[in-house]
Design goal:
Chain A is mainly beta. Chain A is built from no helices and twelve strands. In chain A, strands 2, 5, 6, 10, 11 and 12 form a six-stranded mixed beta sheet that branches. Chain B is mainly beta. Helix content of chain B is 0%, strand content 54%. In chain B, a hairpin with a 2-residue loop joins strand 9 and strand 10. The interface between A and B is medium-sized, with 23 and 25 residues.
């Protein structure tokens, strides 16, 4: 089965706290892509990162960082020193490359992050 | 500016009416997708098209129809056969394994 699980439905933090959003995926394929998207109240999905299955190097982009661990099938997302503007729904997603695949994304349920001032 | 446009942002219809949601992209992407989002849930794939004049059903295609006559356009029709049409609909296009999304259309059927 191919599946993405975001066990945290809602998280509430106070501004400047660090917060980690969990993502666990299931697949038997050895080649795949993992994504994180942000959905602010306006509704549009904003692309944050793509990681392929052969690259386990962690990535940092400003206050955002991602921890990819194939051993635990996890791709967690950490926001450091959170800000009110980080309040949104965050989705983790999985897709598969190759001509036989559609490129479609398999989404987790999403985690709603509320950052309070 | 390059991007994906969806119109209108809000749409209201009476039960039993068909309604068509617009999606246009000027990114020159071959592949386009329609997703549905319900409250508290992730996105589910309705239809996708990898090339002009060709499209395939996604996971929840029943009650929906699409066309792909032009590379730039992928309209979605929500038919009266769709039992629970009220939802947020997102269109996306992709190249090089990255999908970009439009702003969405919130459809309410009463």
């Amino acid at each position: 089965a191919q599946k993405v699980t975001q066990a945290q439905t809602e998280i509430s933090v106070v501004e400047k706290e660090d917060v980690t959003l969990d993502c666990v995926y299931e697949t038997r394929d050895t080649t795949y892509y993992l994504f994180w998207y942000k959905q602010p109240p306006s509704g549009e999905l904003v692309f944050l990162i793509r990681r392929n299955s052969f690259d386990e190097q962690n990535e940092i982009s400003g206050r955002y960082s991602w921890n990819f661990q194939k051993s635990t099938s996890s791709f967690n997302f950490t926001i450091t020193a959170s800000q009110v503007v980080d309040s949104a729904v965050y989705f983790c997603a999985l897709s598969f490359p190759g001509s036989s695949n559609t490129g479609k994304l398999i989404f987790g349920q999403g985690t709603t992050l509320q950052v309070k001032p | 500016d390059g991007g994906i446009t969806q119109s209108p942002k809000y749409l209201f219809r009476k039960e039993g009416q068909n309604v068509t949601l617009s999606c246009e992209q000027n990114l020159n992407h071959d592949a386009m997708y329609w997703y549905r989002q319900d409250p508290g849930q992730g996105l589910r794939l309705i239809y996708y098209s990898q090339i002009v004049n060709d499209f395939q059903k996604g996971d929840i295609a029943e009650g929906y129809s699409v066309s792909r006559e032009k590379k730039e356009s992928f309209p979605l029709t929500v038919t009266s056969a769709q039992k629970n049409p009220t939802a947020f609909y997102l269109c996306a296009s992709s190249a090089k394994n990255e999908q970009y999304f439009g702003p969405g259309t919130r459809l309410t059927v009463t």
